[in-house]
Every structure is written in C-alpha cells, then in structure tokens.
Amino acid sequence: MSTGARRRGIRLPQPDSPGNGSGPDGLSPRSLTPDPTHDSTVGDEDPRSVSRSFPAASGPPEPEYIHNIACVAITAIAFALRFYKINHPDQVVFDEVHFGKFAAYYILREYYFDVHPPFAKLLLGLAGWFVGFDGRFEFEAIGDSYSQHHVPYVGMRAMPAVFGSLTVPVVYQIMKECGFPVVICTFTAALIALDNGHIVQTRLILLDAALIFFIALSLYAYIRFRKVRYSEFSRAWWGWMVATGVFLACSLGCKMVGLFTFFTIGTAVLVDLWDILDIRKKYPMDVVLKHFFARALGLIVVPFIVYSSFFWVHFKVLSHSGTGDSFMSPEFQESLSGNELLMKSHEIRYYDTVTLKHKDTKVFLHSHKERYPLKYKDGRISSQGQQVTGYPHEDLNNQWQVIPSKAIPETGRGRVVRHNDAVQLLHISTQSYLLTHDVASPTMPTNQEVTTIAKEDARSRYNETLFTIDIINGHPGQPWKSKASHFRLVHVPTKVSIWTHPKALPEWAFKQQEVNGNKNSEERTATWFVDDIVIPAEDEDLFSREGGPKEKVVKKMNFFRKYAELQLLALQHNAGLTASHPYASGPINWPFLLSGISFWTNNEKLQQIYMVGNVFGWWTCVVALSVFTGIIGADLLARRRGIQPIPEFVRNRLWNSTGFFFIAWAFHYFPFFLMNRQLFLHHYLPAHLCSVLVTGAVFNFIAGESINYPISVPGPGMRRMPTARSDVGMKAVIAAVLYAIPYLAMFFFLAPLTYGTPGLNGDQVNRRLLLPSWTLHFAGKATTS
Amino acid sequence: MQASDSFRSRRPPSPSGARQTLTTGLPAAVPRFPQPRYVEEGTYPPQQMSADEKLAAVRQDHNAMPATFGRPSGAAGLGGRLGGGLGRISSGEWKILIAVLLVACSIRLFRISKPNSVVFDEVHFGKFAGKYIRTRYYVDVHPPLAKLLLTLAAWIGGFTGEFDFKEIGMAYPDSVPYVLMRMVPAVLGVLLVPITYLTLRALDCSASTSLLGSILIIFENGLVTQSRHILLDSPLLFFTGLSVMFWVMFCNEDKRPQHKAPTVHGAKGVVISGPFSRIWWTYLLLTGLSLGAVVSCKWVGLFTIATIGASTIKQLWALLGDLHIPASLWMRHFIARAICLIAVPLLFYMAMFEIHFSILRNSGDGDAFMSSEFQHTLQGKEMHDTYADVAIGSTVTIRHVNTQGGYLHSHPHNYPGGSKQQQITLYPHIDSNNDWLIVPALDPSHSNTTDPMKTLTYLKPGSVVRFRHIKTGKHLHSHDVRPPVSEVDFQQEVSGYGFEGFEGDANDNFIIELDEEGGGDDGGRKGNGRGWGGDRESGRRVRTLRSILKFRHQLTGCYLFSHKVKLPDWAYEQQEVTCNKNAVRMNSLWYIETNENPLLPVDAEKVNYKLPGFFGKFLELQKVMWQTNAGLTSRHAYDSRPHHWPFLRRGINFWVQNHRHIYLIGNPFTWWLSSISVLLYIGVRGLLVLREKRGYKDFHHSAVVKYDQLIGFTVLGWALHYLPFFLMGRQLFLHHYFPALYFSILTFASVFDLVTSTMSPRRRIQVAAVIMALSIWTFAHFSPLAYGNPWTKKHCMSAKWLKTWDFSCYDYHDDYSQYRITTSAPAGEVVHTHAIPASPSAAGVNPAVKPVENLPEPEVLTKAIQKEKLEPGRDVFEAQPIDDLNERLKANLAMTGANAPVDPKEKEKLKELEKSKAEASKNAQKEAEELEGKVGPLLPSELAKVGERVEKKVSSADTKVEEHVEEKPLGKIGEKSEAGSVDPTTVQSVEKKEATDKPE
C-alpha cells in the first residue's frame, strides 16, 4: 500500500520534511474503492521492520562550515550579479513607470489606486524616502531619464536587488534543511543566482523581488516548522509557525500571487492535520483540536492581522487627495484631504438646475431637438420622440431642472431633495420632461427608449415622467448631494433605471452615446451623479444656503470599511485587465521560455533589456519536473503490483519533501491557466523557484542511492533512529561542474540582454534569437527582411 | 417464495401489493421475482477467487438453493438472456415498464403539434435540416448526429427545405412536417424513461425505486418541454442514458465470475459469462457506440465519456492491485476497454462527419467559415485550373490568407475622409472588381527600352510592381495618410489612385516578398520557404496558389495589411485594408488565386487548390467548431450561469404567442429534491471519511459499501456533467444542466433506495407513492408552461415560487373563457411579435469567425426591401403593464375581438405609424431605387444640415473612438505592462467594455 510509508512512522521520527504524505494519500486507491485487502495490509506492517532496508551510515555528515562557506560564496555571487551596473540604464525601465510612481505618491502622501497590495510598494517608497527622493518625478514613460531629474534611483533599485540576492541563501537553506548535501544545495541556489530572468526582474524597481523573497522565506519557515513537529507546542514550534504566517502575509502583501503560496502551505497543513487525525496516531480528540486551532491562529489569524496592517499603514500614509480618488466611493473620497468632493459637494434643492454625469463612462445626460428616426435600420420602429443621449462635453443641453412631485415648503430644509424622492427632470433648453416608456431603444430591443415629452403634453403622461432618486447605499431622508451622491434614476411606473453604455448611436444622433432604460433596476453600471448645480433655485450662494461657507473638515471613515472597499475594487479591476499587450504571453509558453518581455531599449547605443531566463537552466527544470512525475508514476504503478523499487526512506523523501516542492510549483503555475487577465513571463518566476527546488531534489535522486536521514529534530523521549547518509559524493560534484559549463556560457551569452549593456549589433542580436518566438530589437535584416 | 425473490437476502424485494395498485389485470398467481439466472451459473466454481469472493459465492449459492426449484419463467429468461444484472427483473416488472412507457408517451406526445409555429432554437435546427435536404453546406457548433436524425424525419415527411425557420413564432406552412420532426426528440425522450428504469434496476435498486426514478423523469417539466421541440438535448440525453445503462450492465457482467462452457471434444471452452464472454463484449461495444452517439450529438457528450472513463480507470486500477491477475490478463482488459471505449466512439464520431460531408455537397452559407481549399471541395465553388507562373502583365486576384481569405477589392467609391481617393477593401465574394493587372513599376529613367508588358518577366521576390485595378484603372496606392478606421500612427491608408493619362507616382510601387515560413497554421499548408503544396518553385518565384506573399510599399516600407475591422456603411461594411508598418505577420500575408496572362503559352503549367481529404476536412471543421464555440461569449437575454442551475433559479423563454407561453423550467420539486440528495451524499460521505480516520468501521458494513459505490457513481456523473461548466466562458443555458440533472435524479433514486432499504415493502411503496404524487402535482401545476396551454394570470402568479422565474404572467388572460375568443383568430397569425432571441449556440451568428458575408455590394446589389413590421421590437416579457392599461386592454378586446394588435399602449402610436407607414414605404422604395441606380451612399448631407455645432460633436465623438483603438505597435520600445497597475483611463475603458457586454 502506498500509504504504508506514512503509517510506518507512527512513533518514530519521520524522515520527511514538509507536506507529509500529500502525494500518496490523495492518489490512494483507497479513496476510490473500499479495498477489501485494506486491513491485512495494515496488519503486516510492522513499524519496526523499516530498519532492515536501511543502509549503513556512510561516513560522517558534512561539517556545518562547508555549508556555510558554500552558502556565503553563492550569496556573494548573487549580490555581485544583481548589483553589477545597477545604475544602468539611468532611465525608466518597463513597469518602473508604475512602481516608481507609486513610491513617489507615498512620499507625497497622495492617494492612488492600484490592484496590488501595498507592502512591496511601501518598501519601495521607504527606500525612496530613505535615499532622499522628493517624489517630484513623474515616471511618465519608459525611457525618461533619471539623472536629468536627479532621482536617486540607484537607492530605490538597491532595495529589490537586496531582496533578490537574499533569495539565493534562502533557497540554499531550504535545500540544506531538507537534508541535501553541499553540492546539491549549491547547485540549486546557483540555478537562481545565475538566472538571467531572476536577475533582470530583481534589479529594477519592481515588486517581484520582494514577492519571491517572501515566498521562499515562507517555504523555508514552514519546513523548519515541520522539522520540529515532534516537539509540538514547544517554543521553536510556535516560533516557526508564526514566522510562516508572517512571511505568508508579507508575500501576499506584495502581490496577490502570494495567495498561491497560501494554498501550497494550506494543502500541506491539511495533509498534516489529516495525519494527526488518524486514529492510529493515538491523539485524543482534544489534542487534535488543539493542533487545529493552533494552526488556524498561526497561519490564518496572524497573517490576516499582518496583511491588514499593511493597509492600515497604506491609508495612514496616503491621507491626501490624489489620482486614485475617482475609483473610490464618495464616503472614501471625503476622507481624503483636499478632495474635490469635500470641497464642492452641495445639497440639491428642488428647482435647482443640475447636470447629471454617468459614473462609468463620464458622459452627461443630454438631449437635443432632434428626434429618433421613425424606422431603424433593422426595421424596428421608434416613438419618434426627442433624442436623449450621453454626451461627454459641457453643453447647455446637458442641463436639467429638478421638479418636485409633491408639495414643498416655501423655504427651508424641506426643499432639499432626499433619497427615494420622486422627481421630474425638465430639460431646460427644450422645456420638456425626461420620459421613458415601453418602446424598444434604438440599439437594444430589450431596453426601453428614453425620450422627453414637451411640457404642454406632459399632463397626460405625468406618471411616465416620474423618476426616483435612488441613492446607492442611501438611507431614508439622506439628502441628495452633488458629486457625493451616486444614485440610480429609477423610472416610477416601469422600474427601469436610466442607463448608458459606450455604444455610439448612428449619424442621426451625431454618434453620441445611447441612453436607455435598463430593466435591471439594480444594475451596477446604471450609476449617475450630479456633476454640478448650474443654477441654484434661489439665486443665492450655494454656501450661504447651507448656512454659510463652513470649514470643510476631512471626514473619518472606519479602517475596516476602507479596507473592504479597496479589496473589492482591486479584485474587480484585476479581473478586468484583459486588454492585450504585445509582450503578454500565455502560461503554456512560460516553462519553455517561448517568449520574453522587452523592458527597455536604447536606439542610439543599440542597447536593450529583454527579460528572459537562462534557457539552459529553465529547460533543465522542465526536464526535472517531468522526471519527477515519471518516477512518482512508475513508483505508484509498481507498488500497485507489489513491487517496491525504491527504498522506503528515499521514497518518503521523494513523496513528501520533493512532492511538497512539486505541489508548490503546481500551485504557483496552473491557476494562471484559469485567469483571463493579461499575463507575463515574470508571473512564472515564483513557480520557477519551486521548480528549481524540485530540480535539486531530482538531481540528488539520480546522483545517489541514499539521502541524509533522518533530518527532523527528535522529540523528547524518542528512541534513536537508524541513520543514513547521502552518498552522492564526487560523481555529483563532477556532474555539477560539467553542468555548470553550458549553464555559465548561456548566462554570459544572454547577459547583454539582461544588463542592457553592451549594445549589440544586428548579427549579435540574431545569434541571441535562440528561439524564433523571441522578439528582440535591432535584429539584423537577414531574418526579418 | 418472497424470501427467495432476491439472492441478496438483506434487502426485501419490491412488494407485490404495490404492483397490484399500479397495474391491473396481473394474474396474481404469477410469481413476481423469478430467480436470476446467473445464480445458477454460480454453481460452476470460478477459477480464481479470493477468500472473500469464495465466501460470497458460497453464500450466493446457499441463498439461491430454494430458488432453483422455481418455475422456469419466460420473463426471467428475457432478463437472464440480457445479462448485465437484468436477470433480477421479473415478468411482472416488464409489464409495469410497459405501463410506464405508455404514461411517458401520453405525457411527452400530448398535443405535440401545438404550437404550430417555430419555437426557440427550432430556428436553428429546423434550418439545418433544410440545409441537409438541400445539401447546402453550413457550419454549426454541434456535431451532426442529432441533426441528421431530425433531417431523416423531415426527409421522410417530405420536407423540401424551402421553409427557412427564420424567427421564433413564425407559423409552419403545411409543407413542413414539423410534427414528424418533433417526434424524433419526443420519442427519444420517451425512451429515456425505460432506460432510467433499467439503469436503476441494473444498479441493484429495488423495483419501487426504479419506478420512482422513471416517474420522476416522466414528470420533469424541463425534460418534457425540451423533448417536445426540434432540439438536440433530448437525443443527447437519450444517448447519455443509454451509455450509462450499457456501462452499468457491462460492469455487472464484469463482476461476475468468469466461467467457460464445458469443453467439447478437446475444443477450447467458450466463455459464457463474466469477463470476455460474448455478452461482456456486447455491452462493452454498445457502451462504446452509444458514447460515440452522445458526443456526436453535442460536445457535452465528452463529459459522459469522462464519466465512463473515470469509472473505467477505477476498475482498471482495482484490477491492477489484484495480484492474482497476471499482467497479460490485465493488458487484455486494458486493450479491450481502450478499443471499445476510445477507438469505437472516435470512429463513430468520424463516421457521422463522413455522412455530414457526403450530404452537404453544395456550397452554402457555411462556406465562408472554411478555408479556400475546403470551399473548393463544394459544388458551386470549384475553380478552373489557373496558370501557375505569375508574370508582369498577369491579371490576378489576390486573396488575404488570414481573415477567411477575402479578395483585395476596389470599387468606384471614394473614402469620405483622408485622401478622399478610391476605396480599397477586402471583399469575400468573387467579383470582377477583384481583378488586378500587374504592371511594372514606374521607371522614371526610361532606361528599359523594351516594353515589359510584351516580354514574359516572371515575378520574383524583390520584383517591384504596381497593381492596376482593371475596372477603374486606378493603381493600388499608399501614402502617409491615416486610414479611416484604424487611425494609428503606424497604419497608412491604402487607396486607388490615378486617372486617365496619368502614369501614377512612386507611391504605387510595391515590392514583392515571399513569406519565409509559408502559410503557418493555415490548413496544414506548411511552406518552410518552399511554398504550399510542396511546389519547390514557389519558394523562388511567385506561383499562383502556392507562394505566400507580402507586399512591401517601396517608399514607406509598410506592408499591405488587412484585419477584422469593418469599414462603415459608406464602404458597405467591407473589411479594411491598410498599409501597416508594424504588421502582424499573419495579417500581412496574401496569395494569388487566379492568374491569366496573354503572354503565357496555352500549355503552360496550371495549378489548382490541393483539395483536402476527409481527415483534412474533418480536422478543419473541428477547429472551426471549436473557435465558433469559444466565440459565443455575448450575453443572451435568457442565459444563466452554472451556479443558478441546481436550484433552478431561472428558466428560458421559448415562445410567446396568443397569450400562451412556453417557458423552459424544471419540475422544482424533483429538481430541488435531487440537488439536495447530491449535497446530502457529499456531506455524509465527508463525514464517513472523517469517522473512518477516527477509527469507526463504517466501511466494513456491506450496505454502506454497496450504496457508497452506487451513489458515488451517480454523483461522479453529476459532478463531471456539471462542474466543467464553471470553466466555460461561453454563454450557457439552463438546458446545459439536463445531463447532470439526469444523474442527480438517479442519485435521488439511489438515496431513496438506501433510506428505504430497511422498510417493509409495503411502506416503501407508500413512501414512493407520496413522492410520485407530489412530483406529478408539481408537474401539473407548471404544465401550461410546458405545453403552451391556456392559463390565467392568477394561476401564473401563484406559480411564481421564486422571484427569479421570469415567465411573464401579464401575457395570460384573466380568465380561461377569454381563450375561447382567441381561438377564433386565424391560426398561426402572429398577434404578438416579440424579441426572444434564439440561442446563438448554433452557427451563423458568430461575428468573430464569420467573415463579412453577403454584404451589399453596390455593383451586384439586389437588395429586397424588407416588409415593415408594425410594432417596435419591444420585449414583452419583463414589462409589467400598468394597471389602467389592463382596463384599456379589456376594452380593446371587447371592441375589436382578439385579432387586433393587443398592445393598447402602442395603439395610439400605431395609428400614427400607420399614417407614416405609407410615407415610409415610399421612402424605402425611393431608397431602393437610388441604390439600384447605383447612387452612392448619401452620407455627408446630414452633416451639412446640422451645421457647425454638430460637426464639433461628431468629431469629438470620433476622437473618443480613437482612444479606444486597441491596436498597439508591436515591437515598439519597452511597452508598459499593466502589471503594476491601472491608470484611471484604462480602467474606464475596461468598464466600458463591461457595459457593452450587458444584455443586448
């Protein structure tokens, strides 16, 4: 039985590190068929019988200092490669446009809106502030010069570069903690340290460096946590678990990709809890529950608090009005100092003349003398009423007067229009009332036509000219305010709401935007606001009728409401990013590096930065992943036929430790297939990191028969275990050195594209077009003709 | 007798009492449950048995003992001969089955001829039947089997294909055998009922459970509605049910111990039961065939294949773990299943397409979806052989490779903007305006003394030539002016330029380049520099139909380019042609289709399209279907999302006329019950897994194991037929849930079997009867929506159990008596027109794939003036008339009888309209005359009329449009990615896009 391995370790320290049993359990035939032989299999499994398959320990473990030397050396190389010519180019590169700008906003404390969580951007802002950036540079376009504007960009780039470099020792330590020998650890770390893709992405003002660093750190902390699992609830146990939670929150705080890390760790935790639940582990139910709640605390509650605190800081820092205002709700906007809403919002009273603007498409509700044509092109027929359209510019024809549908007092607060009041809207220049009726709109047979009816004819169709002011999230009695109140205009008899969409009407309406009545009165996009009160009803100052010009105070808004609002918006916008981009690529291309991203070019010096990984390294990872799948599949089949090709403890490591890396890779890669938004090669970098870990483990599996075992910290009162030592020895070193030759060659070959220097002439570029699908610039004429 | 009815003693058989209440005239003396035969076969000792199996076998024999003394019943023989676990069906049950079948017939076929007008997607499937009969090629997203069946019925009924099923509500003329066509889905719908019964029986459920299951299927409003019209879901469901039934029978057979007939004269014994017996092979093969049939009805059938596949893998995995089975035997098992469940369905599927192609021999409106090679296999689209070598002086037609191969085209109309020169477009049909003469480039030095038109100069890569439009004498020309629609920097306008006596200028010169990589993924015409079709010459000089060309503008270096952007009305919505400096390769490829050159000798080499064989056609069509399917993303007024389905949140409006209404909605009782039972199973199963982990021995209980496997299978089927829809971005409808519904009803039946397994037979049938009665009552309650029967507003309102059910009650009369008046209306007259769009799931609606087709072309225009419709296309369904209108309605009715347009609201308007109608039709006639008289479009007159202010508006509107032109220069330096963020303008445009996706 494939689950045997897990059971064997019942009271013994298990060799596996993380994600115990995640592989075999899910695939076990037992979950599909109740296996009649089930019990007997359990019966002949004597936990102690394991020891017979252990080889004698082959030599002492490698001394710690060798590990330290290797780790420091590879880290030093990583630093050197990331800081090499970090000042080049002194121009804005690729998405520095965005993230540089955001850093500037933090320094200026102006509110902005972005789909990514704020942690990494806060760090960039901090770095900018630290090196004395004043926020006065706009980062407007790729290629803008930093040095001309005296931007301390090197300091800002140093921040990601440090994160990028530190990722390398973390990877080294992950492998070391999983019990791999020095050569394997170095090999794995080098696959990250000398990867062109990682280097280019981590030495620019981008978020990925921090993201990848914290993802690696989360994996590391979780592995450490797993290793102390026999001393449950000890200080180290708690410490590593909370550390995992904090690092998870940090990676999620950089980009939403961190969510995949959550899933990875979450899966491992679930498998772990599943084992604890097993009756044969002899845990009483209350201990099981204790385990459960401890993990819920450390891996859900703690990360949530940490993650939320980033936003708390975000809101605290960005207290001024800025470019992001218009994304937010009116309440939110009023909490930003200097916001337009705060300054210019007024209550609307009856007989005020106002202009109404559609929230999403920013057009005014407009009407003009021209009428709908009798017959549309598709043969349908209109009412030939006056046209009502959406028009994006200021115009006299945008003005509507608010007419009450009930008796109102001569003066005072009774004249204020309130939530759910029914009103008529009088079009000033044609003196006609807004009306909608059961006639199909010009372009959409399902929606109602909106038109107007002359004042003198309106009496007979009075009901049809009534509209309710339905303020969104409004409460009874809430006054209707310009700018600040987002509302729907709901027709009283038919309950349609006035709606517009970016479809232009034909020539007869001067290609203005269609306005019609949407049958879904709750339609989210049928939101309007009053842009301005053009002519107040009582010719007096808007301020004075509200009791004099008050000092506008910044309103307070609860942090949690702000937080929830921003989360929701970010989700919606993330899904909306579907526009195509010349360098966007599908996930299927990524592992094979079928396409890169052009970050920056310099036409004079023929320099360019092209983000692409070390092709040799990446393809090695692909091979390793498929080898791993093959081994696992073959093992599964063989076991099913009663053959045990791999020694138990090696198999354990393969399933549980390497399987964990594999799952991490799968979780960081496959969900992208479900996403419709535009995707880029750099989204694969976290998954690439995980695939590198798999590669290291597979290398170890191929090079040697044995592994370092056990590696977990024994719990109190546990018996000594038989041990095994890795026997990769010299042949692995030789293999690694042989591998390093083409790997390094590839790195240096692609380095001009990574560092953007030196410039390459046409032929040199042509030679670097390793795959025909790459789109390098300045390619020689021979290929593009 | 009763005790021995079932060999499984732990579960009592169905009670005989129940049967007496249900079927009359059964001789009471007939024993109900004859002994299944294979118990007798069990006396042969199986060859390899584990201890458990042996024990079971012994127990079986023991139980069977008394039964072997039973009478030899013919009915038992029937079940026994069928094998596959049907042996336990008694003769009495066969009679019940017949009764059930009769009930099903009466429910499904009741007034099937009503309504005698087109309902919902009959629009499509009726039309397709017509196309088969007229052998006109069409393209649809669904495979052909179900449509072929419908066609067969239509053909037998003498349908000639003249009726075009144009829109919902059109009355059928007498020549359309629509009743016969509707009979196909209806009969298959009826047959689903016995299939349900037998499946449940084969799943080892009791007779009362099976009866319950089949009753639930009969009285399922949605299935009834769907199976009564010319639609594909009923055949789909029938074959799904059939596959499952055969598979279950196969599994039963597979579980039986194998035994061989006694050897006769040393000959090898024939396996007569168990694996590899004849009956085992039969069921396996039948499963494969019906799987092929499911997937040939709709691609949803792939989910059925997945279900059976998952079940097969589970079986094989269990076999693999059985170390008693040698590897060779396992391989036999594996290969048998691979052949029958993979190869057979695939062959079946392909055979359907072979039939499809062999029927649709003639060109039709689906041509334009296909590649030019494909089109030339159709009669009416063939082309004569044409000269292979292109030279200066050749008259050629030039086709675009990527966008369904339109021809480079020009006509004597000018661009309204830009250079105001003659339009160049892409036009998909053969026309003399597609002819171009290749003339040599302007040679200002006149160094070349020989007239190049007189000597044969082959076109080679690098040749510089001009293209002269033969009809108008203009030259293909490009210059630094922005094109009319794609007004971006790197696009240039392409126009026809020149006049009599003017030689043209250097902007007419184009350099010919051969495309290095050939046609790319276009229909397998891989070139690799050697051209298409293995013509080696085509890589060196320009060859008709073989070389793939790019035309580079000599002076500006841009490439002649076209993309799926339509020009406005003034160019008859033909496709835009530009000259692009950053051209996407695939959109700048062209080839020469026909070539005439007076200088070529008559016997010069000729070429033609390489016609694709069956596989080429098959694969191409699959690709087109896939793309069309993926392109169906627009919203439909009655579409729904998968999470709405299990709880029946919304139905589909099929048809409204004469105050009658057909609305697809399920039987809420059945529907909810079955969904709940699925959830219940999932919940309980989860709990059991947890309990097992804590050491409870639930799975040692044989009943738990049995029902876990049984319900597990049906829930697996449900999940595989339901969950994948969540991944689909395309438009979805309630009827997509039907296969999953079938499985959930099976689940409910199994749960019922489980819950009642400890009850006495009498109690069990009582419980079943209550459920049946409730389900029948619910069915009756909603049946007017299924049959389009008269109903009243009051009843209708009381049937709106959920707010989200949007059948419109306002269309019904207040009282049944009013229907008597209505029936006097001339049959088939459309009183209400309305806008139920048919689902676009069928072809011909996908703008993404559909090329510009049947465009009004000024020269060949024969546009019929459409008859005016008297009513604005309003949507009657969601509008709720206001109270006083009802009174007006009544008054109106009283006054005019039912015949008049019943929409009083429009009445006043109508009078006006009628007045203006005469005027309008006069206008329309004038318009037609104008068009016929080749009068150009009257565009700018309007602008002039409205004056400056308007012009400003128009231009501002134009600039707005420009902002949203998405095209970005490829290869431009370091694009910003969105990755970081959105700036407000992009977000706006995104939101705008969303807005357009709203219901249309």
From TrEMBL, chain A:
Q: In which pathway does it act?
A: Protein modification; protein glycosylation
Which reaction equation describes what this protein catalyses?
A: a di-trans,poly-cis-dolichyl beta-D-mannosyl phosphate + L-threonyl-[protein] = 3-O-(alpha-D-mannosyl)-L-threonyl-[protein] + a di-trans,poly-cis-dolichyl phosphate + H(+); a di-trans,poly-cis-dolichyl beta-D-mannosyl phosphate + L-seryl-[protein] = 3-O-(alpha-D-mannosyl)-L-seryl-[protein] + a di-trans,poly-cis-dolichyl phosphate + H(+)
Question: What keyword terms does UniProt attach to this protein?
Answer: Endoplasmic reticulum, Glycoprotein, Glycosyltransferase, Membrane, Repeat, Transferase, Transmembrane, Transmembrane helix
The UniProt entry lists membrane topology as: Multi-pass membrane protein
Name the GO cellular-component terms.
Answer: endoplasmic reticulum membrane
CDD domains named in the record: beta-trefoil_MIR_PMT4-like
Which domain of life does the protein's organism represent? Eukaryota
Class in the EC hierarchy, top level: transferase
**GO molecular function list:** dolichyl-phosphate-mannose-protein mannosyltransferase activity
Q: Where are the transmembrane segments?
A: 154-174, 180-197, 204-223, 238-271, 292-313, 616-638, 659-679, 685-707, 728-751
Give yes or no: UniProt keyword Plastid. no
- As recorded in UniProt, its EC number(s) are 2.4.1.109
**Listed Basic residues bias regions:** 1-10
The record's PANTHER family line, in alphabetical order, gives: DOLICHYL-PHOSPHATE-MANNOSE--PROTEIN MANNOSYLTRANSFERASE, PROTEIN O-MANNOSYL-TRANSFERASE 1
Family membership? Belongs to the glycosyltransferase 39 family.
Instruction: Report what the protein is called.
Output: Dolichyl-phosphate-mannose--protein mannosyltransferase
Supply the source organism for this entry. Serendipita indica (strain DSM 11827)
UniProtKB/TrEMBL annotation, chain B:
Query: What subcellular locations does the record give?
Result: Endoplasmic reticulum membrane
- How does this chain sit within the bilayer? Multi-pass membrane protein
Residue span of region Disordered: 1-29, 516-538, 895-1000
UniProt main location, coarse: endoplasmic reticulum
Task: Please list the residue ranges that the record marks as compositionally biased, kind Basic and acidic residues.
Answer: 903-933, 945-978, 990-1000
Q: Known EC number(s)?
A: 2.4.1.109
Q: Can you say what this protein is called?
A: Dolichyl-phosphate-mannose--protein mannosyltransferase
Organism equals Serendipita indica (strain DSM 11827) (Root endophyte fungus)
